Amino acid sequence: DLYRPEMNAGTGGAPVAAGQTITVTYGGQRGIPANATAVSVNIAITGASADGTLTVWPCGPRPSVTSMAFRESGTIANGVQAKLSSTGQLCIHSTATAHVIIDIAGWWS
């Protein structure tokens, strides 16, 4: 089964809301080892309600550096290498409402 709720980050397919931070567990999920320490991801943003930025980080305090910027109603993709938290999670924060699609390209243990 390619669709699993744990990989949907609880949005039910809805866009990430402006100012919302979602937490997604990757370590130990979908063939990624539980001891993975970082991931290589392709992030696509589509259907944004306004220009904005997306930040991806290993949870904890949100950094001031963003992972990508996007335009209202456009679609853009960017490759990001991100460290995972000690529990195998990534936090994702969007400054504008947008659909966020994350594909894992690889991982490090």
Walk me through what this model shows:
This protein has 109 residues and is an all-beta fold. It is 0% helix and 44% strand. It has no helices and seven strands.
Topology:
Elements: E1 21-25, E2 38-46, E3 52-57, E4 68-70, E5 75-83, E6 89-94, E7 99-108
Antiparallel strand pairs: 1-6, 2-5, 2-7, 3-4, 3-6
Labels describing this entry:
single chain, 109 residues, mainly beta, 4-stranded antiparallel beta sheet, 3-stranded antiparallel beta sheet, 7 strands, 0% helix, disordered N terminus
Give a brief outline of the structure:
With 109 residues, this protein is mainly beta. It has no helices and seven strands.
Distance between the termini: 25 Å
Spatial strand sequence of the major β-sheet? 1-6-3-4
Q: Helix proportion of residues, in percent?
A: under 10%
Number of beta-strand segments: 7
Q: Which word captures the global form?
A: globular
Low-confidence parts lasting 5 or more residues at pLDDT below 50?
1-5
Radius of gyration: 13 Å
